[in-house]
Structures are given as C-alpha cells and as structure tokens.
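fold-stage: in
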Amino acid sequence: MNKPRRHFSGPEKVALLKRHLLEKTPVSDLCDEVGIAPNLFYRWQQEFFENGHAAFESDRKSKAAEDAKQRKIEQLEAKLQRKNEVLSELMEEHTVLKKTLGEP
C-alpha cells in the first residue's frame, strides 16, 4: 500500500537544506526523518542553487519599486497641494466678488 504523497513548502525545503549545509546533518538522516528519497533531496538542492540568485535580485527590484512608489506619492502630494492652493484662491476671489455684488 502506497503512502499518500507529502508536499513540502518552500520554507520547509530550505530548512532541510540548511540543516544539511550548515549543520552538516547527513542527507540520509534527513531523508529518513521526513520520509523522502535522497534523490528528491538532491533535486531540491539543485533547484535551490539554480534559483538562489533570485533572492538577491528581488531585493534590488523591491527597492527600486519602493523608490518609484515613494516618488509617485511625493508627486501626488505636490499636485494635491497645488490644487488646494488654486482652490483657496478661487474661493477667496468668489467671496470678494459676492461682497462686491452685494450678495449675502
């Protein structure tokens, strides 16, 4: 009878790889502990090293995106400030005009 397949999350896979790479836990011990075949563990390790650069690229991308977002916020705030100043001037002119025409 086959056991149901177990799915591991990304953080679980990284934790197992970390135990092997940093703590020097043997692959066979890890595989026995979680019930996986060593070839699966090595596939995870290969995938980890092939895609590891993405962790560093996302930092730059997220920083650039955050900077762009901040610039956009500043532009919108400046635009809102200008709009409020124009609106204030128009209201003041309207009030003066009403007084000039004798309207209440």
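fold-stage: in (second)
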Amino acid sequence: MTIALYARRKGWPVSGVTVRLRHSRIHADDCAECETAQGMLDRIESEITVAGELTEQQRARLLEIANKCPVHRTLTSEINIRTTLT
C-alpha cells in the first residue's frame, strides 16, 4: 500500500503491486547479519513485484520506501506485547 501511494503521488506508471511473504525459523548461527547469536530466529522473506514501466532508479527508490513503511518498521523494531483477558 505504501509503495502504491508513493508511486501515485510521484505520478509514476505503476499499475499494480504484489507482495509475497515467507516465514521460517532459522538458527541464529545461520544468520551472519543478525544481532542474536544463539537460539532460533523468525525470518520473513519479502518479495515485491511492481507492475509498470519504471527506471532502475525509480525501482530502487520504491524498495527504499518499502523498507520504511509502517509495517516493516514495526516488524524490525523491538516489540512489547501485553495481553489481557477481559
């Protein structure tokens, strides 16, 4: 949604955006770029397909925007969940 809104605001020829996600659990030792050094981690792989005639610079900018969207920021930040039963 963030990508489509940004492209529309810029007037870029985007006719559709599809996002596919895959979730898996991996060992921390198998992740060189992760801060956690032991145990298991959740890994989410995101594949974004943008339909439209875009330049490489526009595509690169849309990837930057995707990595700054509210959902991405929430998933990559520290999460504190408090659950109550009412």
